Structures are given as C-alpha cells and as structure tokens.
Amino acid sequence: MAPILSRVSSGFGFGKKTAAASPSGYRFSTMKGYSVYNGGSRGANYTVQYSDDNSNWTSAWTGNFSTSGCGLVSGTNGGGDYGVHRYWKYVVGSPTNDHHPNVARIVLVTTGGTEVNIVTVTSDNCSDIGSFNSATLGAVYTDPTYYEGN
Asked: Mind listing the pLDDT tens digit for each residue in 73-129?
C-alpha cells in the first residue's frame, strides 16, 4: 500500500481534483421591448435579474423603458457582463410615464449582440395588442444553452 499512497501524494493524478469548467450560456447585457402602442408616450422602470436555482435572485441591472411609438425600443442602462446564469427575468418597476409600455415581447441582448426573446405575448404589431402586466412580463426565462460545465 505504501507505493500507492506515495503515488497519490506525488501527483500521479490518482484522487486529484481538477478545476471545474466554467458554465456556458447566454451573457445578457441589455434589454429591448417591442412597443405595440402608437398613440403616445409610456414608460416605467425595470430590473433584470438572474438566478442559478430559480429561487435566489440577484439584480443584474435596473433601467428605464420608455416608448413614444411602435417598434423595437432599447431600455436604458445595462451594458455590462453579468455572467452566465440558468434563469433570467424582467421585473416591471414603477411607472415614469402613465404605465409600462404595452409590448408584444421582451428581448435580452447578449454581450455579443444576439437578441433573445425571453417573453413573447403576441406577434409584433402596432394595434396596441400586447401586455404591460407585470406577472406576464415577469415570467422566468430558462436559458436553453446553459451548461454547468462539471
């Protein structure tokens, strides 16, 4: 037995732990929403949060999402690298102009510029058919590309 113990302690690889690979998946950085209301300005604060267990949430960034017409509109702030996480969600905050814009979808954009729909209410339109409901827009998005790497 002594030779086996010496091999383990001398680094032959028996029983040695190796560093786990880093997780892979989307690295979200900014948000956009498709405004379906063409009749004036709307706006609200928002927060994008992430979690790796769908239970404990961390705020990645907060910003303002304001629109004055129909189309895909960027929210303010973000722009950092908030890491790779299994779960993401958009949280509607306090209104800054009447109420949160009525939207067809909420989009998170990766650090590389890939746009990912995390909530889709309906197809893009300019007929005011969408949602500004916080429960609908705050649905949890599970990253299908997420891989823990262990």
From this structure: 999 999 999 999 999 999 999 999 999 999 999 999 999 999 999 999 999 999 999
Of 39, 75, 65, 50, nearest to 132 (Cα)?
65
Residue 37 has pLDDT above 90, yes or no: yes
**11 part of a folded domain:** no
Residue 41's domain comprises 28-142
Residue 131 · residue 121 · CB < 8 Å: yes
Q: What is the DSSP letter of 37?
A: -
CA distances from 5 to 9, 14, 16 (A): 6, 9, 12
* Phi, psi angle pair for 132, to nearest 5°: -125, 15
Q: In this structure, what CATH number is given to the domain that contains residue 75?
A: 2.60.60
* Residues composing the chain: 150
